[in-house]
Specification:
Keywords: Methyltransferase, RNA-binding, S-adenosyl-L-methionine, Transferase. The active site is at residue 263. One of its GO terms (molecular function) is RNA binding. Residues 42-335 form the SAM-dependent MTase RsmB/NOP-type domain. One of its GO terms (biological process) is RNA methylation. The chain is of the alpha/beta class and 337 residues long. It folds into three domains: 2-46, no CATH class; 52-113, Alpha-Beta Plaits, CATH 3.30.70; 116-334, Rossmann fold (3-Layer(aba) Sandwich), CATH 3.40.50.150. The protein has ten helices and 15 strands. The strands form three sheets. Strands 5, 6, 7, 8, 9, 10, 11, 14 and 15 form a nine-stranded mixed beta sheet that branches. A hairpin with a 2-residue loop joins strand 12 and strand 13 (306-307). The longest helix has 33 residues, at 2-34. The chain is globular, with a radius of gyration of 21 Å. The termini are far apart. Bound molecules: S-adenosylmethionine (SAM). The site of S-adenosylmethionine has 18 residues, from helix 6 and strand 6.
Length: 337
């Protein structure tokens, strides 16, 4: 009996290993298709976890300077270096017993742990004090609080989240981080206009950091990270992303801009979504964005048999490195005529 059980367990382990290896092969072959010239340079980054990175939250500095907060953390045993993005820091090593997320600085909201790629989108939003801003997919609120800090709370942010548990996380985070200009809303961003018709074309800026297939966060040495991934995920999510984008454009003021971002490589969730919006709405332009990073490249203007609008070259792709995960960013402007 024991032998039979052991044999069944052994066979199911072999099947699981085979399925995982097949998935890894499929994933890497997809990456090779997308980045044939960069593949051998980037493949290794799918096996390396990134160091912990964070930004200092200016809303909770109190009487401290950024340097003081960084020195306090260094005195607790954290080895910190400046990151490649304004106000970002890299935690390379800790002698400390504590994790960064267990420190007083983290619990008081003086620092916010955030990936470097995730800090990029807000930098392109051309934020100005007094703006009315909508964050359509907000939790846990990394980018919401980054906007609030950038504008020193002198703006109005409506931050929407449709997952109850994540909505409470968002609310808590905004409180901890002192983001007082944020009105967190437990709602579905797809149907906002139906529920609140007066919101039509009312926002100066819209941030649409969509739910995506998360390929940027896949690490192949961790079997869990590939669990939800399959070759159909991107297609399914692209439908939701288009509906969210349709809603966001309807809520955006003429002259205003919408920032679209994903942490995934799939063309279906990136260039194809933006190309679809350009065809659907005649009043959109893709604004040129760029960042001084070696791992940034223009979005694709063609993919297999598809030819996209030339303006797709104004969007950016961030390819993975030892510090960055894969990301895609597009900035759409609604014309005034
Ligand atoms: C990529 S995460 C957002 C991360 C966030 N922007 C940040 O920087 O911290 C996407 C979020 O959108 C939420 N979401 C998905 N569909 C939504 C919808 N229809 N309306 C509002 N939120 C939605 C998900 O629950 C998830 O929390």
């Amino acid at each position: 009996m024991i032998h039979v059980r052991a044999e069944v367990e052994r066979s199911s382990r072999i099947v699981m290993e085979k399925t995982l290896n097949l998935k890894i092969e499929k994933f890497l072959s997809k990456i090779h298709d997308i980045y044939p010239d960069k593949y051998f340079e980037i493949e290794k980054y799918f096996y390396n976890n990134k160091p912990v990175t964070f930004r200092v939250n200016k809303l909770k500095l109190g009487n401290n300077s950024i340097e003081q907060i960084i020195n306090n953390l260094r005195n607790k045993g954290f080895e910190l270096n400046d990151g490649p993005i304004k106000n970002s820091f890299i935690c390379n090593y800790r002698k400390a017993e504590l994790k960064l997320s267990e420190t007083e600085e983290f619990n008081d909201g003086q620092i916010y742990i955030q990936g470097l790629s995730s800090m990029l989108p807000v930098m392109f939003m051309d934020l100005k004090k007094g703006q009315n801003i909508l964050d359509m997919c907000a939790s846990p609120g990394g980018k919401t609080s980054q906007i609030a800090a950038e504008l020193n709370n002198e703006c109005f942010i409506t931050a929407v989240e449709n997952n109850k548990k994540r909505y409470y996380i968002l609310k808590n985070n905004m409180e901890t981080l002192g983001a007082k200009c944020v009105n967190a809303l437990y709602d579905n961003s797809v149907t906002l206009l139906l529920k609140y018709p007066n919101l039509s074309e009312s926002f100066d800026r819209v941030l649409l950091d969509v739910p995506c297939s998360n390929e940027g966060s896949i690490y192949l040495h961790n079997s869990k990270s590939l669990e939800k991934w399959n070759s159909k995920t991107a297609e399914r999510l692209a439908k939701l992303q288009r509906t969210l984008l349709y809603s966001g454009i309807s809520l955006l003021k003429p002259g205003g801009s919408l920032l679209y971002s994903t942490c995934t490589y799939s063309i279906e969730e990136n260039e194809q979504v933006i190309d679809w919006a350009l065809k659907k709405f005649g009043n959109l332009n893709v604004q040129k964005i760029s960042v001084d990073l070696k791992n940034s490249m223009p979005g694709f203007t063609k993919w297999k048999k598809d030819v996209f609008n030339d303006q797709l070259a104004n969007t950016i792709r961030i390819t993975p490195t030892e510090l960055f995960i894969g990301f895609y960013i597009a900035l759409l402007k609604k014309t005034t005529d």
